[in-house]
Give the backbone structure.
Amino acid sequence: SSGINAEWPLRPGIRGLSPLSSLHSQLIFPPKTPPLSLVEEFTIRVLCLKSVGQFAASLRPKPGLQLHTVNDTYSVIQPFPPHDDRVRSVTERTMKAMAQQKLQLDVKSLEFSVNSNQYDSLSPFLVPVTSTVCLHLRTVKLLVATQRSVIIIPKQVIQDLDTLKKCRENHYSREAIKYFESMFKNGSWWLRSQGDQDICPVNEQPTCKEMSDFLNILSCCLFLAKKSQGIVTLLVPDDAVSAAKNNTAQPLYANLPSAEMMDLAKRYGIRVEGALEFYSKWTMSNRHGKIGRGK
């Protein structure tokens, strides 16, 4: 444009440059001067390029060209960092670290809410056994709705439910599986399944298949207790607690923990409570304002 040409005092000196011969043939120049040598052509060309660079670097916003006045050089700049695999990897690591910190803060918040009142009916983690899920699924749902403790479903419970659903008369297991699949799919914070690595060895030799299955559940409880350094409550059917307390025969329910199993969990520091009694204590303490909802 004419504005740009007015700032280029070397404009007449480019006459004779071969790349511009076609354009110059249409212009009127002053009387001819001696033809330029190769060195002169090169010098003028460099000076013109330098002038163009200075003009481009002075534009706002920056077109991606930066002038370094110290050594009189130019460099290409990028206003925004490229979204390459390296940046994506750093972002993923940052998000994972933030999620881990949030989990630790939530666990500490749950522990504080447990220790800040005289009622000890709550634990940061609740682990129901298979018979609890089948017989007291409604109570499990109510505990999830309170959003006060994280309920972990052991893999052994999932396997037991998958086995029990094959029995036509056992509709409780099918209802439980349907509920868990829906909650896991939606990513509920307060109801989760046991992870593949969420295990802690139990130094006990199983005497039967039922004990072996219970040790798998106990392993999940011990992992949570070690990870959170807090209280983990094993939720069992209230009939099992009553039978163990009164030293009476256990009801004939599938996968019902025996008194020996519950005593074993207590020896490892795991609290054992009936699901209905646990929820009843929480409701009563919450009604009296002893346990407030977390922020």
